[in-house]
């Protein structure tokens, strides 16, 4: 009877530990890592307190259905990190204290609580931004811009470079605090292998790495803009750049577009800066031709305007050489060039760079130091190796072929299913700019989402109070070519259900 009671007790105890440490064999992380994370999480959440005895490695392995050595390795790591303590013939015990209870949460209406709304000097959350559904990856037809198709991501090449960055000699370089510096290897590779693709040549002291192109724009704005600074902006244009400049209380002068990009005329007179996206205008995808580029540079010189060139999505048209960047035409140091490695690799990598005259880079480094000192040096070194080994250039060529194939599929599907739309998608772009006359794109996006189709309403790209309603952006970097036709057929169905709901504008 006692033996049976003990067996029942042991079984119940095993079930409890299996509940506490839930494993997901298919998630990609080693099982011993999952066990370690679960134990650390249970300690931090107060479910395992100091002094708690853990099951033997044999018992826990049986409860979780894993090899005993897997548990032994997990326990040993936690002992090495002083999270567990091992006692001879006693087993393993929790060595660290669980999370201490903090103060009781303060009610937002409690007497004496600060009025945070009144204290705010800015309300960034009120700005109009591009919004994507949080679960877009789980939807069947994600026509989402700027997100990767994981089937195109060079997993093995990137893994090779990350592993190489963990070599003893490499670790010696990137574990130290770079203060306001960057990995010199990455700076060198950007100068030698990335910028020349755009016709740009820069010295070591003219390049700085940023946490994506977005941070580069923010640093430039903080350093150069204040109330009354006049900034020319493409309209429609990139909302985040518009919001960044507006946060500095700059005066935004909206510059119209035509089929060659931003129009060069009297609008530049009186501007201190002009922000442009010449490789693929955001969001229309227009590639600015050489004549317009030369005219813009000439006008900038005539009116003493500094050009902020956002090369967020460099041209990667298959089979032809991309046009040189505006920075390559710069003979007087008036172009600030912003680029990104995140768009071609992965947005989550958050690596960009800015090319500017050395005195400005010096100040940008000092400003960046106040924010975060420098982007993680291990990521910088891995990216440097990725470029140095030729993986980046090979990946660009793969992307060029894939985007060209998808662009053809999108055009054919639009002609088949939505022939009444007007669209623009320049070679090498990873999106198309669509006008759906008589439709409200926000209403259409909502109906399309119900059918599993994600599109991006275009009104957010316009700066005016009453933006046109009929435009939307159709990204195709994240959707396989095999799904494009079915996805646009579903979008056409959503458009038919919205046909009676046009909106003015």
From TrEMBL:
Single GO term (MF): transaminase activity
Cite the SMART domains for this sequence. Answer: HTH_GNTR
Its domain of life reads Bacteria
Per UniProt, which keywords does this protein have? Aminotransferase, DNA-binding, Pyridoxal phosphate, Transcription, Transcription regulation, Transferase
InterPro entries documented for this protein: Aminotransferase_I/II_large, HTH_trans_reg/aminotransferase, PyrdxlP-dep_Trfase, PyrdxlP-dep_Trfase_major, Tscrpt_reg_HTH_GntR, WH-like_DNA-bd_sf, WH_DNA-bd_sf
Q: Which residues form the HTH gntR-type domain?
A: 29-97
User: CDD domains given for it?
Assistant: AAT_like, WHTH_GntR
State the protein's name. GntR family transcriptional regulator/MocR family aminotransferase
A single Pfam family it belongs to is GntR
Taxonomic lineage is:
Bacteria, Pseudomonadati, Pseudomonadota, Alphaproteobacteria, Hyphomicrobiales
Q: Which PANTHER family match?
A: HTH-TYPE TRANSCRIPTIONAL REGULATORY PROTEIN GABR (PTHR46577)
Which organism does this sequence originate in? Labrys wisconsinensis
Q: Which family does it belong to?
A: In the C-terminal section; belongs to the class-I pyridoxal-phosphate-dependent aminotransferase family.
Please name the PROSITE patterns in this protein's record: HTH_GNTR
């Amino acid at each position: 009877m006692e033996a049976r009671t003990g067996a029942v007790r042991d079984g119940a105890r095993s079930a409890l530990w299996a509940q506490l440490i839930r494993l997901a064999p298919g998630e990609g992380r080693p099982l011993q890592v999952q066990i370690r994370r679960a134990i650390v999480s249970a300690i931090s959440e107060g479910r395992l307190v100091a002094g708690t005895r853990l099951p033997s490695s044999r018992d826990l392995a049986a409860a979780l259905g894993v090899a005993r050595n897997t548990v032994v390795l997990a326990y040993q790591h936690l002992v090495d990190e002083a999270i567990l303590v091992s006692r001879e013939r006693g087993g393993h015990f929790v060595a660290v204290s669980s999370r201490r209870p903090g103060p009781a949460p303060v009610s937002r209406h409690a007497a004496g609580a600060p009025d945070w709304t009144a204290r705010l000097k800015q309300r960034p959350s009120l700005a109009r931004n591009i919004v994507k559904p949080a679960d877009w990856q789980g939807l069947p037809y994600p026509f989402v811009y700027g997100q990767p198709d994981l089937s195109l991501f060079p997993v093995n090449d990137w893994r090779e470079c990350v592993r190489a960055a963990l070599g003893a000699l490499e670790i010696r370089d990137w574990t130290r605090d770079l203060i306001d510096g960057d990995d010199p290897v990455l700076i060198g590779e950007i100068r030698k292998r990335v910028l020349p693709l755009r016709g740009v040549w820069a010295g070591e002291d003219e390049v700085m790495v940023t946490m994506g192109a977005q941070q580069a724009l923010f640093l430039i704005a903080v350093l150069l803009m204040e109330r009354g600074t006049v900034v020319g902006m493409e309209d429609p244009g990139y909302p985040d750049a518009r919001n960044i400049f507006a946060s500095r209380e700059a005066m935004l002068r909206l510059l119209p577009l035509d089929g060659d990009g931003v129009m060069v005329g009297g609008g530049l007179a009186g501007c201190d800066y002009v922000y442009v996206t010449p490789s693929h205008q955001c969001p229309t995808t227009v590639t600015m031709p050489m004549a317009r580029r030369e005219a813009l540079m000439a006008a900038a010189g005539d009116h003493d305007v500094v050009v902020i060139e956002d090369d967020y999505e460099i041209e990667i048209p298959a089979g032809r050489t991309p046009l040189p960047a505006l920075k390559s035409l710069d003979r007087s140091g008036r172009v600030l060039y912003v680029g990104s490695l995140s768009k071609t690799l992965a947005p989550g990598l958050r690596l960009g760079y800015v090319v500017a005259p050395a005195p400005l880079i010096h100040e940008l480094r000092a400003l960046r130091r106040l924010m975060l000192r420098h982007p993680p040096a291990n990521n910088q070194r891995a990216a440097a190796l990725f470029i140095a080994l030729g993986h980046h250039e090979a990946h660009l060529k793969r992307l060029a072929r894939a985007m060209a194939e998808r662009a053809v599929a999108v055009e054919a599907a639009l002609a088949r299913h939505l022939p009444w739309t007007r669209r623009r998608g320049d070679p090498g772009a990873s999106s198309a700019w669509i006008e759906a006359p008589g439709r409200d794109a926000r209403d259409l996006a909502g109906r399309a989402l119900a059918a599993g189709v994600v599109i991006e309403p275009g009104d957010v790209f316009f700066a005016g109070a009453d933006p046109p309603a009929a435009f939307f952006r159709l990204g195709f970097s994240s959707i396989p070519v095999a799904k494009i036709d079915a996805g646009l057929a579903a979008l056409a169905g959503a458009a038919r259900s919205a046909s009676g709901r046009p909106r003015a504008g």
